[in-house]
Every structure is written in C-alpha cells, then in structure tokens.
Amino acid sequence: MATSAETRFSLSGVKRNSLVVVFVAVQALVFAGTYTVGRPTWYAFFMIASTAVTAFALDGDRFTVALATMGSVLMVALALPLFLFVSRQVPSLVIEQALDPGVHRVLYLGVYGPLLAALASLVFGVPLAHLLSKGFPGQPLVESLVDLPLVVPHSVAGIIILFGFGKGGAFPSISVLGSMIGMVLAMAFVSAPYAVNAAREAFESIDDRLEYASRIHGASRWETFRRITGPLAVRGMVTGGVLAWARAVSEFGAVAVVAYSVSFFYPFEGGEVTAQHAPVFVYNTYLQGGLEQSGAVAFLLLSVSGIIFLIVRYLTTDTTTTGGVV
Amino acid sequence: MSLHADVSATFSADGAESFHVDAEIEVEHGESLVILGPSGSGKTLLLETVAGFHPHDGPVTLDGRRVSDTPPEERDFGFVFQDYALFPHMTVRENVDFGSRYHGDTRDPDDLLAELGVAGLTDRYPPTLSGGEKQRVALARALAVRPAVMLLDEPLAALDVPTRQSLRDDLADVLADATAVYVTHNRTTARALADRIVIMNEGNVVQSGTPEEIFYRPESPMVARFTGSNVIDLDDAPSLRAAFDVESDDVVTIRPESVAFGDDGDVRGTVERVVREDATNRVTVAVDRVTIETFTEQTPAVGDEVWLTLPESDIHVCRQAAAV
C-alpha cells in the first residue's frame, strides 16, 4: 500500500496543475456566489473547510490536515480582504481615476521613486552584501546597522533622516525636505536591508571553491566576480532589488515625514511636476474623498505593482541565469 | 618545473579550536607527490595554502621563483577539487575553456575532452553530468591552462568504486609526465599514483619517502597503522618476542601481504574475523594479546587455530617514542 508521501508525490505534473486549476475555479465560483448573495462570511468558512477536505483527500494524514486547516485561516485573512477589495471597486470610478493626469503622475512617481531607491540599494548594497558573506572584523555591528531600519518605526526613520541630512545635518548643500533626493533617501533607508540581505544570502550560497577554481585558472578577483560570483548571485540580487522596490512602493511613514510632496521631471509632460508618493496620495484621497475614491486609486497602484512584479519574476526565472539547469 | 613549499597557516572557525598547518613539501619536475593522511590531518588545507587560497607564512617557489607573494591566478597551478567545483552556469566547453582568456597558450577544449573520453558532453551543463563525468571535465579544465604544477584534492573521493578505478587509471596516464601534488586519504590510490608520498597528521608532515619506504618502513606506529601495516607491541605478544631481537620498548610492523597463512609457521593464533575482499580474504588472527591481519585465498572459520609465518626480512622495527 502506498504511503501518504508516495500518494502526494505520485501526482504527475499535469494532474497537479489540473487539481490547482479546479481548486481555484471552485474557490472563484463559490466566492462569486457568496458575494452575490451578500454573504462573504460563508466563503471564509468554505475556504477553510475546502482546504481541509482537499488536504485529507490528497494526503489522508491528520497532521497534514491540521497544518492545512490552520494555514487556511491565515490565507483567509490575507486573501478575503483582497478579493473583496477587487470585487467592490466601482468600474466607472476606477476608469475615471485611470484617466486622471494627476493620478498618472502619482503612479509614475510611485514606480519611478522606488526604482531609484532600489537601484541605490543594489549599487551600494551588493558590495556590502559580498563583504558580509565573506566575514570581517566588526561584522555583527555592521549587520545590526543594516537591519536597524527593519525594527525602527518608519515615521521615526523619516525623523532620523531629517536630523541626519536635513537642515543642520550632514551635506547642508543638499536639500532633503520635500525633494526627490529626500524621498529616495527615505525609501532607501527602509528598503536597503531587503536588498543587502537577499544579496548576501545569494553570495553565501555560492561554494567558495567555485571562486578558488576561477582564481587558480587565471581570473583576478574582479574577473571572478564578473564571470562567476555575480552571475550565480544575480537571482538573489534581483530578488533583493524587487523586495527593496516593493518595500519602497509601499513606504508611507518615512516618505510622509521627509517628502510629503515632491517636484520631479515628468517625461510625459516634458517638464517638472509636483505629486505625492502613491501611498501618501491614497491616504490623502481617503481622508478627503472617502473609501470608494481612495479604493479606486489603490486598485490602480496595486495593478501596476502586480504587473511589474510578475514581469520581474518572469525575467528572473532559472533560464536567464544558468541555462535552465540550476 | 619543481615546486618547493615550506608554509605555515592558522585556520579558525566559529565554535571550533583553531587548526595550525606547518609543513614542507618538495616536488621535482615530472614527479607526482601524494600527500596521504587521515581526515582532518590538514592535507587539503596545505594544498589550498600552496595554491594561494589562504594567507600563510613561508615561501612557495616554482623552479626557485618565489610565488608565495602572488595571488592564485599568477601561481601557474591547475587545481582539481574533490567536489569538482565546475561552474554550473557554464557549459562543459565553457568550463574547460575558462582559463584561455588569461593564458597565452592553452589546449583545445574539444581535444582535451576527447582525450578524457567525454567528447560528447561539450554543450551540457555540469548539473546534468554524473560524478565521473564532472571530474573528467574538472581535470580537463585544469589541464587546459598547461599548468606548471597540477594540484589535485581527493579527486576520486566522491566517486563510486568502478568510476574511481577507471578514472584512477586515466589519472595515472595524465600524471605520468606531469609535476603534481595529489591529496588523498586512500592508500591504494597513493600507491598507484605516487612517485613519493608525504604522510600528514595534525597539520604536520610526519614522514616522507618513496611508496616502498612509507609502506614497508614506517617511522611511527601512526604511519604504519594508517598505511595498513600490522603494528605489534611485542610486550603484548610474548610468543612473537622470542623470534625477534628487539628492545623492550620497540614495536614491529609488517605488511599484511607479507604474513603467510597456513598449517605451519612461526606463531600460532586464533582466527577472529574473516572479511571477503574481491578475490581474497582479509583474515584477522589473534596472537596472545595482539591481532595480526593477513590475506589468504583460503576461507577459514572464526575460531580456527592457524599458523602464521612472518618473514624476518619484511619485519620493520620502529620506536614507541616515535608513536603519534
């Protein structure tokens, strides 16, 4: 008799994909039904129950069923608000916001600013990550400093940046308050740890002997990084960049303090425009226009972020880095 | 090219005591030196230190030219790693051709791969290869740059027995005319490939010499045991003491293959263990309070009383004081 593990793994790829499609389709249908009759709570219970039943059918082991059931509660907490958020959008309002040039600027800034922050995090974070992966005296201090923004409330991070680089701080000739530089600085402050840590993990996963092999057969340290270490860690770097970008896109506290609204060059109008970072704009719209109007802007921002995230994930699949074999 | 290294280096890791390597090796042009030692004896660290992967004190010279102050890429070595260390994002051909960018005169990757019997793999990626194939590619990569000295770190250790035997034969051909330092813990490989052997233990060289000297005239019980000799403390074997004219604190060593097994001989013992090894049996015989191993085509039973003959010419005396 096959064990539960054998049963689970004996599902072929096609069968597994079919199962996923059926599961998702059933979930979508039930959600649509419960939403239509105004009972989304029923869907929450259905999602938990259907997950438990599916786990039992696939595995039959009580432990797995318990894990799946507990996990599905968290999935309900994450997915149900998202489903309802998408379902409750008013299409006409979304279209209206999508056609608003002011919203275009916000969306542009909401992608462009975080992109600059992510690039800065990578340019300066990758060398640091490489050093951290090799180890050096005082490393724990540097690691603590890198991780500090993860535990600092982000409005506090904004205040710290203003003390450090604002009026009376370092680099008095550079204007930080309400400027693009300030916004990127605030975003980089909170997102750089993601870039550094992801890149460091990627470097640490590379066997030292690959670098030894490169060096002993003629490559310098620079060449070894260019031909061996860099390409093998590129997925980690890109992951770090995407995480940093995503974190910067969602940043509210530090940006609201440092750069509430900023002027920047907007190529579609060929000149300087002023706009707010998207989360700040969504919050303002919520205060001034209510839930429905802010929801439409949030929906657009979510769509743009989701599309970019999927594109980056697609571009960084295995085949782009190692010929599809590792 | 001849290689001389007299290096010392200290290695430390979190949660472990630091380990010190202090060793001198010398390899003549065209000679294969095997560094033989138990796991953890520091032989790989010594090889990596000679290659320049670790900071060290002391000189490394190639034909008298000091290379210890130069980085690995300027030392003119080829290196074959135990775990292959092939670049996973490059094809086999790109791996073998890796060094051509940095060396003026390199060998053609296709010719090398054909010589090593893996011509059909050029467009494959390393993760799709078997262990034996990977090691042949790694060997080709090292040979491609025409190194002055080949450094090989247990290249056969991760392979199954048939693949190991096949590749060992090929390595014997490759290393026949090359100057090479070969690290292994396998005495069979050492005997098959070495012109000279260095025995390492706890970071130091404890004996060096020809295979004949190392295997038949070990300078300490540690070397004798590690190379597979019987080590006999005559205080524990009174029935053997009468046959040998040695001092009381000496031990004697003898190769198992030198001990004859039969119905008559120098000393009588009891069969303790019989292990089948290919076409022969390795038999452990208890004599007084010691055990003696021998090989025989006979298949005795455990508990059988047997006679052993220990030819005096094959007995080597080594001092307990040299024990490690």
UniProtKB/TrEMBL annotation, chain A:
One of its GO terms (cellular component) is plasma membrane. It is found in: Cell membrane. It comes from the Archaea. PROSITE patterns: ABC_TM1 (PS50928). It is a multi-pass membrane protein. Pfam families: BPD_transp_1. Keywords: Cell membrane, Membrane, Molybdenum, Transmembrane, Transmembrane helix, Transport. The chain crosses the membrane at residues 18-35, 65-86, 106-132, 144-165, 171-196, 296-316. Its main location: membrane. SUPFAM superfamilies: MetI-like. Signal peptide: none annotated. InterPro entries: MetI-like (IPR000515), MetI-like_sf (IPR035906). Residues 107-312 form the ABC transmembrane type-1 domain. Belongs to the binding-protein-dependent transport system permease family. This is ABC transporter permease.
From TrEMBL, chain B:
Pfam families: ABC_tran (PF00005), TOBE_2 (PF08402). It catalyses: tungstate(in) + ATP + H2O = tungstate(out) + ADP + phosphate + H(+). It is a peripheral membrane protein. SMART domains: AAA. Residues 2-227 form the ABC transporter domain. Keywords: ATP-binding, Molybdenum, Nucleotide-binding, Transport. PROSITE patterns: ABC_TRANSPORTER_1 (PS00211), ABC_TRANSPORTER_2 (PS50893). This is Molybdate/tungstate import ATP-binding protein WtpC. It comes from Haloplanus ruber. The lineage of its organism: Archaea, Methanobacteriati, Methanobacteriota, Stenosarchaea group, Halobacteria.
